Amino acid sequence: MSSKTFSWSCKHTWSRSAKNTFWCLLGCSIGDFGTILFFQLTKIPFPVLAIMVLAIINGIITSIILETIILLRQNFSFKQAFKTAVGMSLISMVSMEIAMNATDYFLTGGAILTWRVIPIMLAVGFVTPWPYNYWRLKKYNEACH
Fold this sequence. Notes:
By secondary structure, the chain is mainly α. It has one domain (12-140). It is 77% helix and 0% strand. The protein is built from five helices and no strands. The protein has helices spanning 11-42, 48-73, 78-108, 117-127, 130-140. The longest helix has 32 residues, at 11-42.
């Protein structure tokens, strides 16, 4: 597809890319929130920036694990599933994680989960990579799921 015929108005692609983005968000949130919650509950003295970097790394790892499992259930081989989960969504996961943690930092000072901030983090985490996921799906017909 040439750049002259690219369209941002395909409802089917927005819907499919939203589904893909949701699965990425779910995977990222498990590791990210789990890490922040661990430090919040244990009160282990650790720098906020270090907690947030660790949360980003763990979020990416759990997202890759979840996406690999989803692809395995779609009859991919393990090697294909893992390679697809890592290769096709890394930009999406990194942008999602940075957006979620930046939101947390600006709203709470960082590495603090509250019922007020979690929905905002999830919304920002979803909206940030969604246009990229649409573009990649529309232009290359490449998705993680």
